[in-house]
Amino acid sequence: LTELLDLGFGRCRLVVAVKDDLTVSAPGDIPPGTRVATSFPRQTERYFRSLGTAVEIAAMSGAVETAPHLGVADVVVDLSSTGSTLRVNGLREIGTIMESSARLCAGPHVAADSALQAETDALVAILESVLRAAGKRYLMANVSRDRLEEVRGVLPGISGPTVVDVLDKDSWVAVHAVVDTADVFDTTLKLKALGAEGILVTRIERLMP
Hints:
Elements: E1 2-6, E2 12-19, E3 35-38, H1 41-50, E4 56-59, H2 67-70, E5 75-80, H3 84-88, E6 91-100, E7 103-106, H4 108-111, H5 114-134, E8 136-144, H6 148-154, E9 162-166, E10 169-180, H7 184-193, E11 197-203
């Protein structure tokens, strides 16, 4: 498979966690022969082999975080997103084996078919435009023309703000720009300080460069 796009959701980590009362701070500190409970035996065995540590794998089909309570193992390798489930069960993360998220992938037959490749490229472009827009907002405001240079410093946009004349108001212009969602509040305050009026912030459905 060829990875085409990180879709940005379903993020999680495959982590090594130990009981709180174990005096180890890193996976490399785990003694040889330690039993490790996991639903991912091959990845776990491969990881500890790369550390030069031979561990005993206890394969489980689910609820791996309960292994210490059941006396199955003192160490677990499990998926985690926030770590809260591990903490509730008295476990402490000491290492990350890998990170994961939902990805768009294509099989080798796609590149061999020009029509299918074109359709795939179009799909990637559409999805990318949605992902790109997710953290952005479209901001519009009316400003005095004599403050325009100052406003440009506040609203850089993608390639600078778009400036449009306001009908029947020669001394005013409308500026439009794309801003990061995290910067909207601060940007709005700066525009107000420059005398901007009619500030409007909207969501963006898609954004293509």
